[in-house]
Amino acid sequence: MDMKNKKISYMVWILFVSLTTYTSAQRIEIQNSNFVVLDKQILINGANTPWIAWNDFGGNYNSNNWDKAFQDLVDANINCTRVWITCNSDNTGIIINSSGYVSSVTQDFWDDVDSLMQITESKKIYLMVAMTSFDHVIYEQNKNFYYERWRNMYKSESNRLSFINNFVIPFVNRYKDNPYFFALEPANEIEWVFENTEVTQAQVQDLVALTANAVHANSSILVFQGTGAGPKYLSDNFWATDLFGDDVLSSFRTSAHLDFYNVHHYEWMTQYWGTPYDNTPTDYYINTKPCIVGEFPAIGSDGYTTLQCYQNIYSNGWKGAMAWTSNGVDSNGDIDDMKTAAQWLFQYYPQYVCPITNDADFDQIPDDYEQLYSGSTTELDPTVDNDLDNLNNLQEWIAMTNPNDSNSYFRINSISMSNQQITITWNSISNRIYTILGKSNLTNDYITVMDSIQYPVSQYTTMNNNLKFFSIKAYSK
């Protein structure tokens, strides 16, 4: 090719640059053993809404019932709930054969969970998902017909991998961009699997390790494992040894680890290791990570009212309190029993329930930005493109551009080639993460060229001369 033709090809390459922006502003992360949102501490002022109709997803799901249940949480100033995405082996959403191999999930299952995730995001309630429960492996007369299949899943490494590859990873990849999908656990109270069946402790630990690595490799979702035996299996200082510490899980699968601890408490446990209303995570030897009390009776326990339970949990340094249950699935209480306690934290410490306090209308556009460009803290609609520059107002905030000026928009400032190197520049701002994508022609999908670029870096150089078209994505942290 002569130089003239080379020049033309470069010009075409430059003209078809594109860009995209979107946000994950509300995601919960961990810093210094605290949960944070945008670097501000958040306490899990939570509940459990495990199911409405047993095995809802792929089976008995009703979106209106779930919408109402989540609105009840909003009205009680609860910011997080925990849902069992499957309840026992009779769930028809997961395809598992008699040998224990998980091959797929049904479209009905995906449709139902899609709806749940939309409700979660619209109500701005953080979601903790239990993928399964120990109930999957327990024999019950006239129900739980496939319990042996789930026992076989645990017993075989190839079957455990099928659970990860054909259920956990597709689930995570489908929903990982929802910032309110906060955390995932392999199975509710998983220790009862090996305590009550021939499945071994090591097989259970390996499934937890596999799940943790799969979630961490594919997303920013946090991983935990709730324990129905209180702190028994979380440290070496009670009846049993630590089952889920970093060194233990990483001995099964390299680098496997949990992000936080989740302790359940009911009165039968008190005689063995006391209560979280009287003990701190340090007392339980689990103070190396954020710790929450993930289940306790909504009607109160151990002589404490529900309000006292919540107050003592927080004052003892636990990072979350989640009563069982908001929708009254058993005799432990419901939303009316926990409402006063949850509203207490919001009344006196709203900054820990909703730390993004500079967003009066909860539309993810901060008040100061809205005030600057609209004269009001509630006027800018995040979905509207005020200046008709093909970026809506939320995207303009992410780019920190003027939503009322069509000449002010996020763009690639320059793109050049020198010595077979392609250099792209853009305006970089703090608290944003940038990803560069490219493709060789218009019919191909974009591939990630470089991600996790942060301020003050504002340019990137690549040697990949096969790429002709580029896109840059901006995320708010």
Task: Write up this protein.
This protein is α/β, with parallel strands linked by helices and 477 residues long. Helices cover 32% and strands 22% of the residues. The chain is built from 15 helices and 21 strands. It has helices spanning 3-15, 56-60, 63-75, 107-123, 147-155, 157-175, 191-196, 201-218, 246-252, 270-273, 306-315, 335-348, 350-353, 367-374, 393-399, and strands at 20-21, 29-31, 34-37, 40-41, 44-48, 80-84, 94-96, 102-105, 126-133, 181-188, 222-223, 226-227, 261-264, 291-295, 320-324, 412-418, 421-426, 432-439, 447-454, 459-462, 469-476. The strands form 5 sheets. It has a 9-stranded parallel beta sheet. A 4-stranded mixed beta sheet has the order 1-21-18-19. A 3-stranded antiparallel beta sheet has the order 2-3-4, with no helix packed on it. Helix 5 (147-155) packs across helix 6, helix 6 packs parallel to helix 8 and helix 11 crosses helix 12 (335-348). The longest helix is centred in the middle third of the chain and has 19 residues, at 157-175. It is globular.
